[in-house]
Amino acid sequence: MWIVYALLAAVFFGARGIMYQWTSQKNINRNLMLFGVFFVGFIISGFAMMLLDQQWYGWQDILVGLTLGLGSFVANAALHKGFSVGKASLISILSGLPPLFVVLLAFLFWQETLTTQQLIGFIVIFAGLYTIRYSNDISFSNLQGAQWGLLAALCFAFNDILGKQSTRLEADMFGTLTLMFGFGSLLFAGSWLKTRKKMTDKINALSSHHSEVKTWSDKKTFCCGLVVGLTNVAGMMAILSAFAIGTTGLVSAISAMNILIILLYSRIFLKESFSRQEILGLTAALVGILILRLSQ
Questions:
Q1: CA distance 107 to 121
Q2: Taking the model in full, what pTM does it have?
Q3: What is the reported pLDDT for 201?
Q4: Torsion angle in degrees (nearest 10) through CA of 156, 162, 168, 171
């Protein structure tokens, strides 16, 4: 059954990535849209928590849930920002590197040594990233959104560790998700309110210079976030269910297929062309990710 959950997570997170890319190209307030994404997750998780009579059993459960909310806040904001300024295929492959950071964090915090397979995975990933960087002429002065993809990967890796930790603590799933989505909602709502006037002026200025660009109303933006959020909460439910009963590395390997869904979307619908170097780099990075995930 864990295989089914992991496959569902891949599908839902892939759909989320596609929706993030699509909305990132619209004239909307990003914080308000992401507030909607997290708010619907909070409502669904809170309702399920009450319906199933779930609860928090201690301060550790609460801390993990709140920290997941903080990590998700940064990760989702960075991912959406990356899609708005960078190439979808590049951002998707960079945001799919959590295992790279998971291994490093595990070494730093728990002194877990690297296996031969993990070292091979590292080498293949870095070779692929170097090839992608070379083919896109990415530099510190021309990052092309790469910094946002890497930040998203780091935060998603942080969340992977916390998500697994919540299952090790035997925390109730919807209790954890309620805290995660609730805290994330508060952070995005606060960000939206804080920058509301500034973002409204910016969007209106863009619309005045480009009459064909239509500004989304707050209501439309928030409702769009609610729809996108359905894929996010469904993906979190699926991957936590898979982590609870399956091997961490194998679950991660299958859920990593969401990268392929976004890459196919970028090629078929966005008509992004890939050079031979990009294809080689993307393939190497994907193979390296798979090797690294299966070694965990």
A1: 15
A2: 0.79
A3: 64
A4: -110
